[in-house]
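Technical annex, item 7. During the second reporting period the consortium partners agreed on a shared format for inverse folding records so that results from different sites could be compared directly. Each record opens with the tokenized structure and is followed by the designed sequence. A conforming record, contributed by the partner at site C, is shown below for reference.
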């Protein structure tokens, strides 16, 4: 399944700015999950945690952009998988990535 998920990620990130793509891909590779949506939500949470930890540094900006892109992709993946459940999945993703 990982090859299929990697192919999904690659297809949907084609044409992204190189630095954003590299950052997002690094978070994607570090994440876990049994579907693209779950894995992307995990990647987005990790990127957001890193942005928060970096504070007001320049590094935080790239991690924050990556988190936004990854969460957006998580919502896309969920909408492709089960469109009628997108609302519930969006709430679950929000709850999973909201810093405590």
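Designed sequence (site C submission):
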């Amino acid at each position: 399944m990982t090859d299929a998920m990697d192919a999904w990620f690659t297809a949907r990130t084609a044409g992204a700015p190189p630095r954003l793509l590299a950052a997002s891909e690094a978070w994607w590779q570090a994440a876990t999950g049994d579907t693209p949506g779950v894995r992307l939500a995990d990647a987005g949470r990790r990127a957001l945690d890193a942005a928060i930890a970096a504070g007001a540094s320049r590094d935080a900006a790239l991690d924050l952009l990556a988190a936004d892109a990854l969460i957006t992709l998580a919502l896309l993946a969920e909408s492709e998988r089960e469109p009628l459940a997108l609302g519930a999945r969006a709430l679950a993703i929000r709850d999973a990535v909201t810093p405590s």
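The chain has a mean pLDDT of 91. The CA atoms of residues 17 and 86 lie 27 Å apart. All partners now use this format for quarterly exchanges.
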